[in-house]
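Hi R.,

Here's the chain you asked about this morning:
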Amino acid sequence: MPAVRRPLGTSLPKRTRRGSTPALPALLRAAIGSHSGVALRSPSAADAGALTFADVARAGDEIAAGLVALGIEPGDRVAILAGTRAEWTLADLGTLWAGATVVPIYHTNSPEECEYVLAHSGSRAVFCENAAQLEKVDAVRERCPELEHRMLLIGAAADGAMTLDELRARGRGPRTAGIVDERVDAIGADDLATLVYTSGTTGPPKGCILTHANLLSTVQMYRERLELQADMRAYLFLPLAHALARVTQLVVLMVGGEIVFWRGDPKQIVDELSEANPTHFPSVPRVFEKIHTAILGGVEEQSRVKRLVFSWAVSEGARARRRERAGAPPGRLARRRHALADRLVLSKVRAAFGDRLQVALTGAAPIAAEILEFFDACGVLILEGYGLTESCAASTLNTAREHRFGTVGRPLPGTEVRVGADGELLLRGPHVFPGYYRDEQATRETLEDGWLRTGDLGSVDDDGFVRITGRKKEVIITSSGKNISPNNIEELLRETRWISQAIVFGDNKPYLVALLTLDPDEAVKLAAHVGAPADDLAALSRHPGVRAELQASVDAVNQRFARIEQIKRFAILDDDLSQAAGELTPTLKIKRPVVTERYHDLVEQLYA
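And here is the predicted structure, written out as tokens:
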């Protein structure tokens, strides 16, 4: 079928000739070509294995030249529908070096969600991870009129789809280097690098236009603030369709570090983490919450003496960290106490992260300060940052030198932050996107005089640390007129041992209620604790003993809030929330509108 290169209503930055300052692809290609050693490592033998920087440079050039041979022009959109793996990175680099625009698609998306991104972006080609992902595309292909080429990252060719090896073969030849050089040299800083579609927590996904200048400024911000070195190793499991994982990938390649990819099983992340032995670990709060829950859950099952030893050791670790940061040298007795605490408890917690970890990063959702303080006492520094897809996942960040738990850090270099009259955080800087693709109204609503309206409520203290207090659209206004942000309440409920997810309601109601889900990883222990069968999570959720345990957890959390902010009633769902059911985003954030609509009747029963 004939291709229509530009969809109606498109609103892209005009392509510009590269000026005196090279754009991101040129700098990235040069950096990769100058580094040596392993760049990408896949733990599974069935994957790409260990790829050196020379391997990556060659693959990027061949994929870029192969795309040119297929007729992909500068500015054309090329989608990637795959999980986080080395081949994703290779396809990303090759597409960028061909001067095309990368359109990531979450590998967990349904065929209909894939169709939306492919059709809305006007993608001419798509890289599919395997036959299963190709089936999704083929199911909706007729409704994506501009889609011409399908490539498989792994597996044999099927139904006209080209394998990655076949694409690379097309890019080999005497003219390969010249073709790629020409494409890379023609890329301007303001050209469109990628269209990243939001995860849709509040509605249909929107395509964020991110330019090469946006990405490059973000990479430079992270490199400067985190003081990254070439010996860094990042363990990456976050979906590369997410802006934070994507930027992490670019930063590591630029500095000459190593990326270790996960095997693809969410239940194995914690086990793989110690095996990967990273220096840097970017993650989302839910992973740290689960590690925290597992540790404390295990301690609860120990004898009273061991529980007291654990509590003492963590307290000793916290005191040692405070002394260290205050520059106060410990006395001989303090050193001995800390050494004993470390041998008995703290070192065992650190071992879950390997023995090289310098810093872990968390973002994309709130995390309780108590969790960060616990890991810090054990010698695991988790730095919370803040950003949106619209700001290339970067805006503020705590650092090892300057951090304050309970905040998302100070603005990154070149970033301006201010608080609007209604408490909304506003951002401005070279990393802020120029707008949404084919959605001028949403762009006008989000950008105002160069400032990005984040939709988040927050504050900035006298030292410049930014604190997020909630989502503007999620603020609950009770029937008495009290404004309540549910985020803090939900965070503390998730901290408790048995609860996986908590969603608080109360808009236009006299009091707050909540929907809770049981943590599947703790279900067996919970069942044993209350004397119930463990083979049916739905039946377990209705057990009176379970109800009593969760009531105790809710009561404990309620004590930390004013009466109007306390949960008066709650219901326990039969199953945990999931991506498959459309209730969670790929980064494990709750899709509140979906949950609200799906469980409307149950919530209303709590007010009956």
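One quick note: Residues 1-10 have pLDDT under 50 and may be disordered.

Cheers,
M.
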